[in-house]
Amino acid sequence: MPKSALVVVDVQNDFISGTLALKDCPAKEDGLEVVDVINELTKLEGWDLVVFTLDWHPQDHISFATNAHKFKQHCDSKVHLECAEVYDKVVFNVEDDQKREQVLWPPHCVQGSWGAELHKDVYVPAGSVTVKKGVNTSLDSYSAFFDNDKINETELCQVLQSHGIDRTFICGLATDICVNFTATHSNELGFKTYVIEDACRGVDNHNIQCALCKMDESGITRIKSDKISSLLTTKEPPMQ
């Protein structure tokens, strides 16, 4: 029987009712809707590991629109940093004259803040593991495996390997960003990767559809939560 890990991505207060609440983003999806679904999943028998990931940014993080003016602008940036706003894509000139493209967001998930905490209703089973990402001031980290430039790696892959994990089942927030990048890297690292669609919510409708199409093309399996229990007890995937 292959060993399976549930990876719950960024179900944090700021993405549900805080500074970057998904319900206020273009797709108007409500992040709170995933909590009950995820709780049902975490309580299933058969998981060999449950992982919770957290955005965990310093106050001076490069992704915050309010910090854009503090960084050096690259000549390729079409948006001037002094005028940059939320959702703008800018280009910074960072360490050793490196070009770094960045979408700007409201300040969110600041280390130690209420907004960075898991939502209070999320069930955290005994023995689960927490992985923090986005801790470097000048690097964002959508994926729970790597930062956006793949300069640094989190401990997630090592944790999965230490538990002998073969399959990852990924859910949480947001479909088109952190779930997408985490699933992509899980697949690239050789884990059989599933994305639990009804346990995810996203930011932008167009980007959500693009992310889902790329998942299909790369061999990531999209699945609904009501199919997981049978999949945890059989080697064969259920009918989609």
From TrEMBL:
The lineage of its organism: Eukaryota, Metazoa, Chordata, Tunicata, Ascidiacea. Gene3D superfamilies: Isochorismatase-like. This is nicotinamidase. Its EC number is 3.5.1.19. Pathway: Cofactor biosynthesis; nicotinate biosynthesis; nicotinate from nicotinamide: step 1/1. It comes from Clavelina lepadiformis (Light-bulb sea squirt). Belongs to the isochorismatase family. PANTHER family: LD05707P (PTHR11080:SF2), PYRAZINAMIDASE/NICOTINAMIDASE (PTHR11080). The keyword Metal-binding applies. It is an enzyme of class 3 (hydrolase). Keywords: Hydrolase, Metal-binding, Pyridine nucleotide biosynthesis. Residues 4-219 form the Isochorismatase-like domain. Transmembrane segments: none annotated. The keyword Secreted does not apply.
